Amino acid sequence: MKVSRYNPQILDPSDLEALFVQRHQLAKRLVEQIRASALTDSKQFNLLIGPRGIGKTHLISMLYHRVAQQEDLKSQLVIAWLREEEWGIGSFFDLVLRILNALQAKYQDDDLASKIVSFYDLAPEEAEQVALSTLKNFIGERTLLLLMENLEDVFAGLGDIGQKQLRSFLQEQSCCTIVATSQSLFNGVKLQTSPFYGFFRIQYLKDFSVDEAVSLLTKIAEQEEDAELVDFLRTPKGRSRVQAVHHLAGGNPRIYVVFSEFLTHESLDDLIEPFMNMLDDLTPYYQARMMYLSPQQRKIIEVLSRWKYAMPVKEIAQRCFVSHQTVSSQLKDLRDKGYVLADNIGRQSFYKLREPLMRICLSLKEIRGEPIRLIVDILKAWYTRSELLLMKQQLSKEAVGQSTVSFAETYVNLALEDNEAVIDPRIDAYIQELSECDQKDPERALKLVDKLMDLRDIAEDHFAQGVYLYRLERYEEAIASYKKVLEYNPNDDKTLSNLGVSQALCLTHKS
């Protein structure tokens, strides 16, 4: 079974379940709320928020199948699933018609089909009233489960009048429960003047961690019967490759699906060519996302796309030639829309693009015949320095007698020579916070060290992590941190001493 990158709704229920990662408790809770809505007078309304590729459609698809398979709900519940492609909604009547069509498609009701056809012989106002009456009659004493993807687009089509009509219908009839999705928190639900302000229970979908990404990729490999990838993911090198993907693309599940075919590639040509083809596929998508933004917001995104690390608000304002207040306001809106992430450190706020691949794709259009920085970044993330040195030796042997340097040799040399001068500015900010942190608060200090370790990988941070874990009496974790330090410095006396003390205390606590 080949896993679909963009259309999880076409997968079988068993495949959806097999590939499910991270959100088990959320899915269980949502099913329980749907059941309560179907079996009692208490109706629940949920809105799932997350950027494209985060897994919203996968979750909605699973909810649909889980609920549809429950025998005791079949007489209590009817389901209408308005999928991502429901673009033609321009009024409340359009929405009612789409719901009726979804119900007819699921339940294959011939009488309902003939009634829908009859609407087209009526004047618009009469058709709306008849359609609404038809919907009420079809639901009867049951509950309507309405699954609505891209709710922000539906609400934009409804407009203020249509939203008010929908809210009145939901309140007056009390026969509907909703699970909807959106890429961001939009005006239709966040403004106090909106008919749906405070209406939905909102759930933000989190990015995947590296461990969750390994779990997802293993499940994908098992479903595709790719034994080589399953075995590779169990190795330190395999995990390192997943960390490289995490570094390049963040925690977006769709990106891991895309990258799954690259993980075992050892040849530079085998890696770079399909990777660049993937970027060619993704670039129009990211360019289209830019069209949703105002000119000022596009300028901010372009500034962030040229910078590898998070930027403080003051610097973003300087590079955009606008005031600090204006940039802060626009960044807040971009964060709500899911374009950027904020990292608040002390009194400073740092912003970066939420999806690193967006930076990569947007930067490609600015390349003018010079070496592509992206390829250098990929090589440094993908291969260890020793692997690059071996690659350089092999390429040098193959190049004997040739007058020009090959593509592969050019980029391997650049990756080996690259000593990046620009340092993530958040590192200094976290170090400053750590120096001011009350040493009697090891919980807060540990959180700051963990943040530092997300940005860099050095022995000093692992040692500090071990110290704070020791103070919190989390001895087994402290031992793991000290062992990590010894991978960098095998004979470090202070680390060996701390490790010995932690091991002794760990044994004492166990006994």
Write the layout of secondary structure elements.
Layout: H1 13-18, H2 24-39, E1 45-49, H3 56-68, E2 77-82, H4 92-107, H5 110-118, H6 124-139, E3 143-148, H7 151-173, E4 176-182, H8 187-190, E5 201-204, H9 210-223, H10 227-233, H11 236-249, H12 253-259, H13 268-290, H14 295-305, E6 311-312, H15 313-320, H16 324-336, E7 340-345, E8 348-353, H17 356-364, H18 373-382, H19 385-398, H20 407-417, H21 425-436, H22 442-455, H23 459-471, H24 475-488, H25 493-510
Explain this structure to me?
This protein has about 500 residues and is an alpha/beta fold. Among the domains are: about 25-205, P-loop containing nucleotide triphosphate hydrolases (Rossmann fold); about 435-510, Tetratricopeptide repeat domain (Serine Threonine Protein Phosphatase 5, Tetratricopeptide repeat, Alpha Horseshoe), CATH 1.25.40.10. The protein is about 60% helix and about 10% strand. The chain has 25 helices and 8 strands. The protein has a 5-stranded parallel beta sheet, with helices on both faces. It has a 3-stranded antiparallel beta sheet with strand order 6-8-7.
Structural class: alpha/beta
Kindly report the spatial arrangement of strands forming the biggest sheet.
2-3-4-1-5
Shape category: globular
Helix content: 55-70%
Describe this protein with a few key phrases.
511 residues, Serine Threonine Protein Phosphatase 5, Tetratricopeptide repeat, alpha/beta, Rossmann fold
